[in-house]
Amino acid sequence: MCQSTLHPFLAALPKCEHHMHLEGSLSPSLLFALAQRNNVSLPSSEDDPAFASPDALLERYAHFTSLDDFLHYYFIGMSTLVTARDFEELAWEYFKRASSDGVVHAEVFFDPQAHTGRGIEYEIVRDGFLRGCRKAEGALGMSSNLILCFLRHLPVSEAVATFGEAKSDCMTGVLAGIGLDSSEQGFPPSAWQIIYNEAKDLKIKRTAHAGEEGPVEYIREAVEKLGVERIDHGIRLAEDGDLMQEVAQKGIMVTLCPLSNLSLHCVKSVAELPIRKFLDVGVPFSINSDDPAYFGGYILDNYCAVQEAFSLTLQEWSSVATTSIVQSWCEEGRKSAMLSELSKAIEAHTRINLGE
Known about the structure:
Blueprint: H1 7-12, E1 15-17, H2 28-37, H3 54-61, H4 67-78, H5 84-100, E2 103-110, H6 113-116, H7 122-140, E3 143-151, H8 156-172, E4 177-181, H9 193-201, E5 205-206, E6 209-210, H10 216-224, E7 230-233, H11 241-250, E8 253-256, H12 258-263, H13 275-281, E9 285-287, H14 292-295, H15 299-310, H16 314-326, H17 332-354
Parallel strand pairs: 1-2, 2-3, 3-4, 4-5, 6-7, 7-8, 8-9
């Protein structure tokens, strides 16, 4: 919890999450339970002491040295997901936790290639996650969308095949769009242009991780060659003033993940993030949790970290929250309902401050 007087307001804000990997919400306790249920062998504690217990694994997560160090454990965790029930339970665990932080709409990533590559059918992954989404809507009143991500450390040809399998889901609205994630350094976004060009022609929404560990040039490639409508992470954007102005003018939202960037040593402190520059220039952005089970912070933790670092005003937070709603890939009616919730939260906080 942040010490700011705005904390009650931050907690009460209706939030939209746009950058959260469902596989990255796999808690150590659920990971160990799924491994036992599915008879999946984890590394021995002799080979890696982190796998001695869920607590030991959680402690190891606090000491990632880089994106690739994190991804090593991320893909081990994925190996425990086998059945549609597993994927549903994973999604439900995230949605419950996110709801307690005030999330009312979540647009979540999933990595089908990480599962199909080990023999799990795409339909099993999709259907399990969709069941979790439907459960969240019914039980929590939370709307959600699935965004399919391609793994950039795998051959582009495999991504092409995955897109072919999922294309109809993207076109019919079963999936909200496509993204690009995994190891960034050495994998420029332009390599996936063939997929993104086709997606653009088919009016499929597009985002991509760029400018996290990779250079600002990767952001330019994502904008100019992939035609992205969002930039995931994008913290290097401030290094190119002209590009930052272009992103602002085009209204391309950047999905920031403060505690993730801190955990993976992309920045030394949250205060190094270009949040103030984005506000000054008019770059739209949202605050997100990325892989919360691994980075020790869900969305409210990230909001608090930003407030501690930047001391944003009520008006600035209201603007951030409004942007996160307006820029969501959901129906206008849903946006209107969330904007109404936001107005009520602002009015309630104002009344409390006035002593009414």
